[in-house]
Amino acid sequence: MGWNVFVVSLAFADLVVAFYPYPVVLYAIFHDGWSLGETQCKVSGFLMGLSVIGSVFNITGIAINRYCYICHSFAYGRLYSFRNTLLLVALIWALTVLAILPNFFVGSLSYDPRVYSCTFTQTASSSYTVVVVVVHFLVPIAVVTFCYLRIWVLVIQVRRKVKSEERSRVRPSDLRNFVTMFVVFVLFAICWAPLNLIGLVVAIDPEIMAPRIPEWLFVVSYFMAYFNSCLNAIIYGLLNRNFRKEYVRIMTSVWIPRRFVTETSRAATDGVRSKPSPAINNNE
């Protein structure tokens, strides 16, 4: 249950940018500038930050969840009960909102014509830019790296059959889930590292360093970072059997709606006739 709730929360974080920020960015591109007013700019920047930081914190939460599940399986059931899992997800989003609020006091949400977006301005405050990079990128990266390294160590030990007790602790489906989220983390780090490194360089001295950053480099790193939200769904489809199956079913519904309705009705009928079954792991 804990795994599914965190994945849904991460998916929601990725989808936030598609609801409003991305459409208004396209609007700005087509009109060659921002014409929606200051309020809409702040709303777009806030939602953009909500998506980004929400993704970071959810990826961190998933890494900790997988670490507890695989490396501390005996305590996992107590730590990640249904109630505790919901509270942890709520805490993640509360911290996400708290992390974004300082932008309104610093005045760091503004329109950047280079990327046609209302987004975080790295030159608004050197100290705040450093805090953003550390709290929203470096610390989560360190936590996730520690969790996944510990999991890899355990997996290697299991493969070498060092401890029979640990051999039964890691099932193939658990390993596939871990690999999926590890790939999500690696791509996140690759996509976001350039923009955060630019932020650290600019924070040294905004007036001197900001003009030295090539515009093409900033634009590429910016869109590379926000493209990361689109990659997660692709990763799930490539590495998770159930996601692939549902993607095929959705595409079939688009091209052959009548067949989709028939399959949905049949599945609903079969579900009523069959007895309730235990929870099934996503990859099994």
Automatic annotation (TrEMBL):
Q: What residue stretch is flagged as signal peptide?
A: 1-18
Q: Which InterPro entries match?
A: GPCR_Rhodpsn, GPCR_Rhodpsn_7TM, Mel_1A/1B_rcpt, Melatonin_rcpt
Where in the cell does this protein reside? Cell membrane
Family membership noted in the UniProt record: Belongs to the G-protein coupled receptor 1 family.
- Principal subcellular localization: membrane
A GO molecular-function descriptor = melatonin receptor activity
User: Does the UniProt entry include the keyword Lipid metabolism?
Assistant: no
How does this protein sit in the membrane?
Answer: Multi-pass membrane protein
Q: What does this protein do?
A: High affinity receptor for melatonin. The activity of this receptor is mediated by pertussis toxin sensitive G proteins that inhibits adenylate cyclase activity.
A GO-annotated cellular component: plasma membrane
Query: Which parts pass through the membrane?
Result: 42-64, 85-106, 126-156, 177-204, 216-239
Where do the G-protein coupled receptors family 1 profile domain residues begin and end? 1-236
| Keywords, comma-separated and alphabetical | Biological rhythms, Cell membrane, Disulfide bond, G-protein coupled receptor, Membrane, Receptor, Signal, Transducer, Transmembrane, Transmembrane helix
Q: Which Pfam families match?
A: 7tm_1 (PF00001)
> What is the protein name given in its UniProt record?
Melatonin receptor type 1B-B-like
Q: Which GO terms describe its biological process?
A: rhythmic process
Is Methyltransferase tagged as a keyword? no
